[in-house]
Amino acid sequence: MEGYAALFGAADLVGDVVRAGAFRESLARRRAPLPLLLHHEQRLLAGRWREAREDGRGLFLRGLIEADAPAARRARRMLERGVDGLSIGFITHASEPIKGGGRLLIELELLEVSIVALPMQPLARLNTTRASARAA
């Protein structure tokens, strides 16, 4: 499965905006694949994001549900039901307030990316179909 977990320049539901390059340093330091969690719950590990990179649109991810992961069955059921939201778990290293509310997120330490029903960034979605989710 693949999709965008963050879109550059697009405000999320609280007004935060991720700036292009915000993940660059974090991704360069990362040696292991990012955890694929459900709802940001560490005990709900469903797999790994094998590819994580910034492109002109945002933070692009490609990964898979791993059969032996504790939450693999639950993740497949969520995808079969049409859940396709993505949400980033991160630590903010640098940000600036945005006039009118929210923050410009300049540098982030990416910890994990979760499948969620209601993403904070409404455009952060998987590009997978129910049929491909069943095949996974």
CATH architecture: Alpha-Beta Barrel
The string of secondary-structure elements, in order, is EEHEEEHEEH
**SS elements, strand count:** 7
CATH homology superfamily: Herpesvirus/Caudovirus protease domain
Q: Label the overall shape.
A: globular
Q: Output mean pLDDT.
A: 94
CATH topology label:
Serine Protease, Human Cytomegalovirus Protease, Chain A
CATH class: Alpha Beta
The helix-and-strand class reads: alpha/beta
Sum up the structure in keywords:
Serine Protease, Human Cytomegalovirus Protease, Chain A, 46% strand, globular, single chain, 15% helix, alpha/beta, 3 helices, seven-stranded mixed beta sheet, 136 residues
Would you mind describing this structure in some detail?
By secondary structure, this protein is an alpha/beta fold. The chain has one domain (2-124): Serine Protease, Human Cytomegalovirus Protease, Chain A, CATH 3.20.16.10. Helix content is 15%, strand content 46%. It has three helices and seven strands; from the N terminus they run E-E-H-E-E-E-H-E-E-H. It has helices at residues 24-29, 72-80, 130-135; strands at residues 2-7, 17-18, 34-38, 41-54, 58-65, 85-97, 103-116. Strands 1, 2, 3, 4, 5, 6 and 7 form a seven-stranded mixed beta sheet that branches. Strand 6 (85-97) and strand 7 (103-116) form a beta hairpin. The longest helix is centred in the middle third of the chain and has 9 residues, at 72-80. The model has no long low-confidence stretch (mean pLDDT 94).
Task: Set down the secondary structure blueprint.
Blueprint: E1 2-7, E2 17-18, H1 24-29, E3 34-38, E4 41-54, E5 58-65, H2 72-80, E6 85-97, E7 103-116, H3 130-135
